[in-house]
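Entry 14. Structure prediction run on the chain below.
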Amino acid sequence: MPSAARLVAKEAYDAKLCHLMDTHTKCFIVQADNVGSKQFMDIRAAIRDSSTIIMGKNTMVRRCIRSYVERTGNEQWAGLVDKINGNVGLVFTTGDLTTVKDTIAEFKVGAPAKVGTLAPINVSIPAGNTGMDPSQTSFFQVLNIPTKITRGTIEITADIQVVTAGEKVGASEATLLAKLGIKPFSYGLKVETVYEDGSIYDAKVLDITDDDLSAYITSGLQRIAALCRQTGTPSIAAAPHALVDGYKNVLALALETEFSFPLADKIKEVLANPGAFAAAAAPAAGGDAPAAAAAVEEEEEDEDMGFDLFD
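Output returned:
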């Protein structure tokens, strides 16, 4: 049986969470692995104007959400229950989702590689002098890192990957990285899931820009148009291409027969007297063209003077 003080604390927590669900329609589920109290303080201060972070035991959060849904009949929040797994918290916000997400992502702190932790990224040690004395070559030998002794210190002769993303960090790798002063990992609150007006989706959706959407839509329309043109199926996407092809066919027919229309007449005139249109288009090439033509004419006249210097 929990104490009276603990019951009061649980009731206060339930009231706070229910109030946030009553007053908000947008929420993040954030992962808080390896996030320190100082980071939490900085993040809270940065988003305080529009957002509230609430952490707690997963069982407590699930129970509060279930009781809220049963009491109010608001089923929209029920989908969050299955997402409350691991070391996670909730960020309720009234601000722009992308802006708040980017603000949270700014607060990351470098961290050393600890034994047994899963590496989020690949870690490599660059070639160069380590400043370590030759007595510590055993660490490099265990990890099969090529080294040589230069001026009484160990020098790595080639870049080498010591940690692979998704694998656990070993004791030798962690010790070596610590000796070299390398903090390969960075941790912060990671937005994993977004809740918005009853819809729940992955946070990666917020990274999609208007340009990305336009590119996807354009690519889809091009594929639909190509498919419709190939199969002869009429569609709005293929209509412009069909009209252009039809115009080309009609124009070709007009050029080969006496049938004509205004635009075809212009093409026929060009084909009948191409020199006239070429002369009319010559001034459009630029003001230097007549001068160049005159220079060429003068040069030709000089060549036809009728005598030779060596006659």
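The CA atoms of residues 53 and 91 lie 4 Å apart.
Filed with the rest of this week's runs.
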